[in-house]
Task: inverse folding
């Protein structure tokens, strides 16, 4: 009850942010801030050189396995599958490290959602077209998800958390 009164007092001074288009801009900025924070935390926890090396090796190993399967070389297939099992152990450790970051941010994220849900009510953004399953009018949830996905991809790429893997030509001898 008290938090609702305090919230109403605060929201009276910034009520213009509750109406489109300002509400859409505020949610976009919140999404950018959350993406930057979580991406920077991931960069600090994950050893990027090891992560990049492992990811590239995994991709090449999958390519080698596919080539071995196409050629029918059973000995090569067994060898690669053994290497994949070893790499899965490393991948589990890296995934666990990234999950720890997600757990750390889970409670603050829930609190942010609670505040956003109380502050922004109804339509906060309009699309210029009818989107399937969404329509033209966007709520806090649908607009945040759109912003979060798009900003997270860009920020992860800009801060080096994702990268391209160049394909390489693999030749496997037939058995």
Result:
């Amino acid at each position: 009850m008290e938090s609702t009164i305090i919230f109403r007092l605060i929201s009276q001074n910034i009520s213009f942010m509750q109406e489109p288009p300002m509400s859409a801009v505020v949610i976009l900025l919140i999404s950018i801030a959350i993406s930057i924070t979580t991406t920077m935390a991931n960069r600090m926890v994950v050893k990027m050189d090891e992560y990049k090396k492992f990811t590239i090796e995994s991709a090449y190993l999958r390519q080698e396995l596919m080539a071995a399967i196409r050629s029918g070389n059973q000995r090569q297939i067994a060898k690669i599958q053994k290497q994949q099992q070893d790499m899965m152990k490393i991948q589990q450790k890296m995934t666990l490290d990234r999950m720890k970051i997600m757990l750390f941010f889970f409670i603050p994220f829930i609190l942010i959602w609670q505040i956003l849900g109380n502050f922004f009510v109804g339509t906060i953004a309009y699309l210029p077209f009818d989107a399937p399953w969404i329509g033209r009018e966007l709520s806090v949830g649908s607009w945040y998800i759109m912003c979060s996905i798009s900003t997270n991809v860009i920020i992860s790429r800009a801060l080096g958390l994702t990268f391209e893997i160049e394909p390489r030509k693999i030749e496997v001898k037939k058995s």
In short: The chain has one domain: 19-158. The CA atoms of residues 72 and 174 lie 6 Å apart. The radius of gyration is 23 Å.
